Amino acid sequence: MKPLFQTLVASVQAALQTGEHFTCGFSAEQSQFVRFNHAKVRQAGEVSQASAQLRLIRDGRQAEQQVTLSGDPAIDQQRLSQALQQLRQTLPLLAVDPYLRLDDSAWHKLDQQDQPLPALDQLLALLEEQTSDLDLVGIYAAGPIYRGFASSFGAFGWHQANSFNFDWSLFHSNGQALKANYAGQHWNDQAFTTRLRQAREQLGFLGRPAITLEPGSYRAYLAPAAMDEIAGMLCWGGFSAQALATGNSALQRLYNGDAQLHPQVTLSEQISGSLSPAFSDEGSPRLDVPLIAHGKALQRLVSARSAAEFGLLANGADSYESPCALSLAPGSLPSAQILERLGTGLYISNLWYLNYSDLPAARMTGLTRFATLWVENGEIQGPVNTMRFDDSLYSLLGSQLEDLTQEREMILSTSTYGQRSTGSSHLPGALVKGLTLTL
């Protein structure tokens, strides 16, 4: 993939006319997909795709076009040449872009994470051995993901990350279900077996009579997967410079200094060591960005356009200004003591269908759904019927937060909309003194 990208970049560079500049983004994957139902393979296939995002700039105007690539250098050079001609014809028809800001530095970023992935036949044999007695439904996706960027200013970035993501659910005969996931770059049979054993244990509890709770505030433990849903909501403009500047951020009060979170809460965009490329889709190097430290707002994610529009300093954020490698610092609660410390309350494995019920107050609502368990005196009693929660982030990670776990889980995005995602989050679980259930 890299030689193909370099060839295409060279061909565009050679075709430029005086006064023109270009940027070229590259996105590709070579993925295996396997779909399971009743713990058996129902569908298997491979996806190999690549595309280029060509942008032409001249006299303060810009236009871009996405080109699907074939993998044949001759054909793809011709496609980019045609795209360049179309962009050249389009530019004079456009108005000058007042917020066009280009990084004209000749930066270089190379990151090749090419750890070997498990052979599919060995993985399927392990799954057959470990799950043949379970009603398992899920999808396994694996393979290399490629990202590239180059510009006429001499910038060049290349990123390859091999990863796997096995996302599955286990169903009890009574209709109750739980979700689980095992993802990363280094497949470990023992780690997967441990994850599966934990899911089996929870599945056993789902066979007990379901418990119905009255609306109210309950002590609760939110597992990393549930925290990932909350973190995902914050990524909807929470840290965006554009959203904050226009009053559309859920964290407006935090960044204005009118509210704060618990001192244990330290959040950052942790690009280093993640699966995400160390350069943005706009063509800027990306660095780690401290977002919240000890409950107080620090930096925001600033794209080049927002920097130009609002007089800020860009820090390599993508155009949508959303974290792609969000990291929450751990706390002091050992995972082995979660039930003991919880005492009596809710053990919430997942949250579902989240949305904002009051954006300015960072108030979220959603459902408990999968494997929410009622605990009394540190002992699991049984599953809880689906309940809706409605609570503010300033409560869950503020006044009501008691502790975060010492152990964190690296959660890779399962999104395959258009292509496999490189997004991730690194999160602990959270013990809260009160979570509000509404119905």
Automatic annotation (TrEMBL):
It comes from the Bacteria. Pfam families: PmbA_TldD_3rd. InterPro entries: Metalloprtase-TldD/E_C, TldD/PmbA_sf. Residues 215-437 form the Metalloprotease TldD/E C-terminal domain. This is TldD/PmbA family protein.
